[in-house]
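A.,

Following up on our hallway conversation. Structure tokens first:
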């Protein structure tokens, strides 16, 4: 008997067609959930669906732009209508623009904040009535270790992830009485995602990775 059985549960993972999002989607599917992978690239999305199907999981792709409120709400409502409920939401979609604070434009700031934090607010807000109706729900927000320590090359990203932590606490406090649990996981360096794009000329990325690896294994 499995101690982690999600058979029949419906999950949405934003940014679920690659990186950490795909890894989480694979885990949910392996536990029996039907997973909706939300993302902008249909090509990546269908490849991710096939990858999950090859090991016996159930997944489907939904094209969505998390910077659009209309798209976010349509994603959530369509999945809930198609499957009759929504049990799990993973707010994983994110981006980063690596510049020091004085070089970052207002438009670039909004790009990161809207993608990483505002999208989580909209999707969570849209998921709430479906979870309230069902009498249960799980919302998992993907944070970052950069919400804890300073990162001079990623001010908007760090701010968005710091905000994610506080947003998580607010929702968890507000909705605990309705059996809706909201959690935030602070991700570290991941060789499968955008950390691979860190500047490497000075060897900073390699040194940072080595220090992080010394504290614990990288996924």
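Then the amino acids I'd put at each of the 219 positions:
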């Amino acid at each position: 008997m499995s101690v982690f059985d999600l058979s029949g549960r419906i999950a949405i993972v934003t940014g679920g067609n690659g990186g950490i999002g795909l890894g989480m989607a694979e885990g949910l599917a392996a536990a029996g959930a039907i997973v909706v992978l939300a993302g902008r690239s249909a090509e990546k999305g269908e490849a991710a669906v096939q990858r999950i199907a090859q090991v016996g999981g159930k997944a489907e792709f939904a094209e969505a732009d998390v910077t659009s409120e209309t798209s976010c709400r349509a994603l959530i409502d369509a999945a809930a209508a198609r499957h009759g409920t929504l049990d799990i939401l993973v707010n994983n979609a994110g981006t980063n623009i690596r510049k020091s604070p004085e070089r970052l434009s207002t438009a670039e700031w909004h790009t990161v904040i809207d993608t990483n934090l505002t999208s989580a607010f909209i999707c969570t807000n849209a998921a709430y009535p479906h979870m309230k109706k069902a009498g249960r729900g799980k919302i998992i927000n993907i944070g970052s270790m950069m919400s804890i320590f300073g990162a001079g090359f990623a001010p908007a990203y760090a701010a968005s992830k710091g905000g994610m932590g506080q947003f998580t606490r607010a929702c968890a406090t507000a909705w605990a009485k309705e059996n809706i649990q909201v959690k935030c996981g602070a991700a570290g360096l991941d060789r499968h995602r955008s950390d691979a794009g860190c500047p490497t000329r000075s060897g900073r990325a390699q040194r940072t990775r080595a220090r992080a690896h010394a504290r614990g294994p990288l996924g």
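Residues 16 and 25 are 6 Å apart (CA to CA). Curious whether your intuition agrees with the design.

B.
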